Amino acid sequence: xxxxxxxYLWIYEIIYFSLGFFNILFAxxxxxxxxxxxxxxxxxxxxxFCNRLCGRGQLYTKLGGRLGCSRNRxxxxxxxxxxxxxxxxxxxxxxxxxxxxxxxxxxxxxxSLKEAVKLFWTFRVPWGWAYTAKTVPxxxxxxxxxxxxxxxxSLLLGFVVMGLFKPRTWCTFCPxxxxxxxxxxxxxxxxx
Length: 192
Prior knowledge:
The protein is mainly alpha-helical. It has 9 helices and 2 strands.
C-alpha cells in the first residue's frame, strides 16, 4: 500500500517537541493539534484527524508496534469507559483552564512570568535556557510554557500506557479524541 503524505506526521511530533525544547515559543505550533481536530469534527463531522493526521498516534504506533516498545497487552476496559474518558477530559480541561488563567494573570501584571515546564501538572522543570526574555510579551511566553507543559505531559502519559498496554492506548482516552467524538455524535444526532 502506497504511503500518503500524512503517514509521516509522526516526524512533525518529534520536530515539535525538539523545537520547544530549544525555544519554548515553538509551543504555539501545538495549537495546530488543538484546533485542527476540532475544526475537522465541527465542519466535517468526522474523526479524520485522529484516524489519519495525529502525529502522536503515529509515533506511538511506530515506537510501540514496529520498534517493540510496547508490551502489546489489551487495554483495560475501564480506560474505554465513558466515565473515565469524560472524567479525564474534564481534568484536562481544568488544567487547560488553569493554564489560560495563569496566562491572563501574567498578561494583566498580577503575576510574573514563570519560566518553567511542569510535568504531570506537578513537577517543575526549569526551562530558562529555552526562552530569551523580553523577545515577546510575557503573556505569550507564559502561554508557551503552560501549553508545552500540557503537551509534554500528555506525550509522557501516552508513552507510559503505550509501554504497559497496546501502542495506541493513549488514543482510547485522549481528550482531543473524546471531544471530537462528542462533536461527531452531536452532529449525527442533528442530521437525523
